[in-house]
């Protein structure tokens, strides 16, 4: 764990969570964080008090194999995880797990089918939507049964009671990082093999491909924005 004070950043704690950790997401109040334990297919919970951090193994939650994507709604009510599956780009559907994040004991509420290999996941600044980059079979060998030439972007609509996929659009080859614009009117997705950034507009609960692609000097694997 790092402490940020003005322009000074320093490590203040190292926490053993028992398994390989792939991602961390903080709750809005800063008193709890969630850890994606990708090889264990579980989400761990950290309790935070100032610079004191404690791993709570009794709160570990089962999600899905290959969990990497992880985010928490701005109000701290829900957390979502993207579970890439045992064998990414194998042609089989994988899942998004929905977690009630604000209870004394966080629990998995639901699993939502999302398609093959949800690589990255992000929740919009207003908490109304989440966006998921879906590799599908675009990272598979061309002759394999699970191969598809392109990936996809999915839009999820969130409420306090449910999470639903309400729209999906075609994307490039091997989709990776994903981010919302600060206004939450646009979604940007990294197309790794194509070396570009796809730009999508949100209208209501629908994702619209603008057709615009921002060329990049290399292969984009991650993306974040505020």
What does this structure look like?
Helices cover 0% and strands 52% of the residues. The chain contains no helices and 19 strands. Strands 3, 4, 5, 6 and 7 form a 5-stranded antiparallel sheet that branches. A 4-stranded antiparallel sheet has the order 8-9-10-11, with no helix packed on it. β14 (152-158) and β15 (163-170) form a beta hairpin. The radius of gyration is 17 Å and the shape is globular. The mean pLDDT is 95.
Q: Which band does the percent of strand residues land in?
A: over 45%
Count of individual helical segments: 0
Order of helices and strands: EEEEEEEEEEEEEEEEEEE
Radius of gyration: 17 Å
Could you name the ranges where pLDDT drops below 50 across 5 or more consecutive residues?
none
Instruction: Report mean pLDDT, rounded to a whole number.
Output: 95
Number of strands: 19
What is the overall shape? Answer: globular
Largest beta-sheet details: 5 strands, antiparallel
How far apart the termini lie comes to: 21 Å
Structural class: mainly beta
**Helical percentage:** under 10%
Which tags fit this structure?
mainly beta, four-stranded antiparallel β-sheet, 19 strands, single chain, globular, 226 residues, five-stranded antiparallel β-sheet
